[in-house]
Specification:
The chain is of the alpha/beta class and about 260 residues long. It has 13 helices and 5 strands. A 5-stranded parallel sheet has the order 2-1-3-4-5, sandwiched between helices.
């Protein structure tokens, strides 16, 4: 997995034991783990990068534990996982996690070896990629090159895509890829990349904890103005409207004359 595709796992693990567990379950070659020490650090991480999933150690409640856990409702695009033991005393804490709509519980000593699979399967990147696994028919991306390119683009889940790296992955030059991708009435490659980024933008914008500037930052747009101009050019709408639009709405807008751009 290339560095630009490494999912970010945000963890609140005040105990050394649970920090070691998280490090073991999510090795550097597969994941980028960010440990937050306080509530403010945890909340700030969401506004600096795309968080795929969050893990909160609830076995020994800390002063910030439940303030951090409550952020699950602010950032529902990133599933929250409780890390706990199998003690009867954990019952009330687990009930509170359920009320906060946590995705699941990782049980110490039992789920250690499968924690990565449990978390990755429900993470933002995996869900986004699976939802867009097949390109919408209205985009007319039917050739092998187009479909392989589409799979690479959606695997980035809205992160910036390098056409150089994409061409290298497909074994062609960037110029050849751009020409063959847009053959016939198909949309331009750059426009499709921007469309997928806006689909991710729309999903993240639905989080109560984000504003458009936050989303522009975590998806690595140059600025909120860049995001605004991209939205106007690619789907004909303002960024503020993205949160109320579904993916199908954005794709329909895209296919109404927004799919072609200069090479």
């Amino acid at each position: 997995m290339t560095a630009d595709l490494l999912p970010c796992i945000l963890a609140f693990a005040p105990r050394e034991r649970t920090r070691a567990l998280v490090k073991g379950a999510f090795p550097r070659r597969r994941t980028r783990v960010v440990f937050a020490r306080t509530n403010s650090d945890f909340a700030a991480a969401f506004r600096h990068e795309l968080v795929d999933a969050a893990i909160v150690d609830i076995a020994s409640p800390h002063d910030d534990t439940w303030t951090i856990a409550a952020l699950a409702r602010e950032f529902p695009s990133a599933p929250f996982f409780a890390l706990a033991g199998l003690r009867a005393a954990d019952g009330p804490a687990l009930a509170q996690c359920a009320e906060l709509e946590f995705a699941d519980v990782l049980v110490e000593g039992i789920d250690d070896s499968c924690a990565r699979d449990i978390v990755f399967r429900q993470g933002f990147t995996a869900r986004f990629s699976e939802a867009l696994r097949a390109p919408p028919a209205s985009l007319a991306l039917s050739t092998e090159v187009q479909q392989r390119a589409w799979a690479y683009i959606v695997a980035h889940a809205g992160r910036r895509v390098s056409t150089v790296n994409l061409a290298r992955r497909l074994g062609v030059t960037r110029e050849h890829l751009s020409r063959t991708f847009a053959a016939g009435n198909s949309p331009n490659l750059k426009r499709v990349i921007d469309l997928v980024r806006l689909l991710a933008t729309a999903e993240l914008a639905k989080n109560p904890g984000y504003d458009i500037r936050d989303v522009a930052t975590v998806l690595d747009f140059a600025s909120s103005s860049h995001l605004s101009s991209t939205a106007q050019r690619v789907v004909g709408t303002r960024p503020a409207s993205l949160a109320r639009l579904r993916a199908v709405d954005l794709i329909q807008r895209f296919t109404r004359g927004h799919g072609r751009s200069r090479a």
